[in-house]
Amino acid sequence: MKKQLTDYEKKAWRMVILFLLAYTTVYIGKKTMSVCLSDMIADGVCDKLTGGTIGTCFLACYAAGQFINGWLGELIHPRYMICGGLFAAGMMNWFMSLCSVPVGFMIIWGVCGYACSMLWSPIIRAVSLWTSDEIGQTAGATFSATIPVGTIFCYVLCAAALNLATWRWAFRVCGTVLCVVAVILYISLGTLKTHMTSPETKKEKSADGKNGTVGVFCIGLVFAASAILFNGMIKDGLDYWIPTVLNDRFISDSSVVSLISTLLPIFNIFGVYFAKYIYSRFKMSELGTCGWMFLISASALGGALCFISLGVGGMAVGILVTVLLALSSAAMLGANSMLLTFIPLHFGKIGRASAVTGMLNCFSYAAAAVSGVAIGVISEHTSWETVFMIFVLAAALGGVLCVIGKGRLAVKIRELDSMK
C-alpha cells in the first residue's frame, strides 16, 4: 500500500522540486562561455589565452564565493540568496552579450561565477532544515543529477542560438531563461513561506543550545576536504579536456567529438544514483562509498591510459576510451554527491550545513581552477600519457584518503545524528 504523504512532506517535496529547477537552471548560465568560446575566438573578440583566463576568473570567483556564501547562507534566508544569485547570473550573461573588451569579459564572468555560487549552500541548508532525513537523501542524489541535465539544456539552447544567430544571442537566451526562472522561483517559494519558517525556529534553537558541546570541526572532515581536492581535479578536468583528448588521439572529426561530448553528461546521472544505491543498499558510510567511487574511477582511467599509451587511433578505440572516461567521470560525480550533499546534511543538526558544504565546494572548485590550467600546460609540454598518469594517481590518493578517514567521520556523523 502506497504511503500517504503528510502535509509537511508535500510542502517539503514542493520546495525540493523548486530547488531542482533552480540548480538545473544555474547550469544553463554556467556553461554558456565554454559553448560560445570557439565562436568568440572566430569573431576576434578574444583569443585562446584570454578565453582560458576568463574561465579561470569564473572558477576562482566561484570557489571564493562558495566559502563566503557558505557562511552567509547561515544568516540570510535561502529564498533571497537562491533567487538573487540566479537573477544576477542571468544579468551577467546578458552583459557578456554586450561586451567586446577582454578585460570586461573577465570581470563580468567572474561576477557571474560569484552569483552562481550563491545557490548550493542555501539549498543544502534548506533541505537540512525543512525536509525529513528520507526526503533529504533522495533529494541529495537528485540534486547532483541536475548538473548533467542543466548542461544538456545549455548545449541545446546555445546550439539553437548559434545556428540561428550569433554567440551574443546564445548569452542573451540563456540569461533570459535564468532571470525568468529566478522571478518564478521567488514567487513560488513565497507560497511556502510558512513551511520555510516554522520548522527552522525549532531546529535551529535546538542546534544553538548544543553548539557549545558539538562543534563543526573533526578530523574526518579534514579527510573529506582533502579527498574533494582530488575529486574536483578529476571531475572538472575530465569535463573540460575529454573533447580535446578524443580529437587529438582518436577521432579527427570535430562534429563527431561534439556529439559524443553532448552525450557524456547522461552517463554522469547513473554515477550519482549508483553511489546512492551502494550507500543505502550496503549501509556504507559516505566516505566509504566515495572510496569505491575513486576505485572505479582509477580503474577506468588506468584502462584509458593503456589505450592512449598504445598510440592506436580510430573510431572503435575512440569509442572504447570514451566509455572508460565516461565511467570515471560518472564515478567522480557519484563521489561528489556524497561529499557535497550527504555529508553536509548531517551538519544541519547544529545549523552548519550551509557552512560545511560551502567550505567543501570551495576546495573542489579551487582544485578545478588550478587543474584546468595545469593540465593544459602539462599536455602541451609533455604528453597525454603524463596527464592520465596524474589522473590515475589522483584517483588512487583520493580513495586512500576516504578509506583512512571514513571511520573518524562516521563517529562524528553518529554524534550529530543522535541529536534530536
Account of the 3D structure:
Helix 6 crosses helix 13. By secondary structure, this protein is an all-alpha fold. The protein starts with 6 loop residues before the first helix and ends with a helix. The protein contains 15 helices and no strands. It has helices at 7-30, 32-43, 48-72, 78-98, 102-116, 120-130, 133-164, 167-190, 198-210, 219-249, 254-281, 286-310, 315-346, 353-381, 384-417. The model has no long low-confidence stretch (mean pLDDT 86).
Question: Low-confidence stretches at least 5 residues in length (pLDDT < 50)?
Answer: none
Q: Give the CATH topology of the largest domain.
A: Growth Hormone, Chain: A
- β-strand percent reads under 5%
- Count the domains: 2
Instruction: Tell me the structural class.
Output: mainly alpha
Q: Can you give the helix content as a percent range?
A: over 70%
The N- and C-terminal alpha carbons lie at a distance of 29 Å
Number of extended strands: 0
CATH superfamily of the largest domain: MFS general substrate transporter like domains
Alpha plus pi helix count = 15
Could you report the average pLDDT, rounded to the nearest whole number?
86
Indicate the CATH architecture of the largest domain.
Up-down Bundle
Radius of gyration: 21 Å
Overall spatial form: globular
Query: Would you list the SSEs in sequence order as H and E?
Result: HHHHHHHHHHHHHHH
What is the class of the largest domain in the CATH system?
Mainly Alpha
